[in-house]
Amino acid sequence: MEYKLSPSDLTFLYDGCKHCFVLKLKHGIFQPSIPIPAVFTVISEIQKNYYSEMRTEKFCPDLPPGIVTYGEKRVKSGPVKLEGCKSTCYISGRFDIVASLDDGSYAVIDFKTGNPADQKTKMYSRQLHAYSLALENPAEGAFELKPVSKLGLLYFSPDSCELISQTRQALQGNLDWIEIPRDDESFNSFLQEVVQLLDGPLPPSDPDNCNWCAFIEKTEKPENKTQGTKTSTEPAIQGPSCPQCSGPMRLRTGKFGEFWSCLKFPDCKGTRNK
């Protein structure tokens, strides 16, 4: 198989719940989406527009001299083959901005709003390494930039506001540059871990640490109790694997009784006898 990996899934979903991660990337079963609060999206968009074509010396003296030349472009890598993995993967996502440095290399920059001391900062390293891999090893016809010499986060931490007029208010705060050291070896090892997880069996649900797994568990138990049966309280995805696509299955009732049917039906018509 060839798995499509998004930088955001590698950053958040992988650490959040391995069960939900595999369901999404291998079986196409998504968690219900929770939109990012609109204010963060607005702040990010304003920053991308404001820093476009700005010299790095003006807003980030810790960066080598250069100019912001690219904003919010989609990237896609070619197939990534990893040692010890029977499957391959590729990166597909969209970066915030890239600066063209005067030495001929590039800096990939991601905007964040919040506390730069947050523990999530280390997780964002995966996101930036994914962008750099896709930029330097693009799929045929995809956007390409190389070499990428700098990776980092530009953190905006609001701490005050100013009333400019009766109808205008300015939000102010610190702007911090957090450089992410380039470590391709560690990132490749991480991708190897991800693909091996996807090639393996579906991890068990984790209701103690995942809200969606907990929701499934809690909503199934009352149903089983009201039916007065000894039906298992485990989610249907704990059943056998589909013989056609290896995805999870659930019990259905047909003309000749109960049988296992692929969750992807009607796209996949794999079945098993109960």
From TrEMBL:
Any one of the GO BP annotations: DNA topological change
Gene3D superfamilies: 3.90.320.10, Bacterial Topoisomerase I, domain 1
Residue span(s) of domain DNA topoisomerase type IA zn finger: 241-273
Pfam families in the cross-refs: PDDEXK_1, Zn_ribbon_Top1
Cellular component per GO, a single term: chromosome
GO MF terms held by the record: DNA binding; DNA topoisomerase activity
Domain PD-(D/E)XK endonuclease-like: 74-215
InterPro entries registered for this protein in UniProt: PDDEXK-like_dom_sf, PDDEXK_AddAB-type, Topo_IA_Znf
Protein name (database record): PD-(D/E)XK endonuclease-like domain-containing protein
UniProt source species: marine sediment metagenome
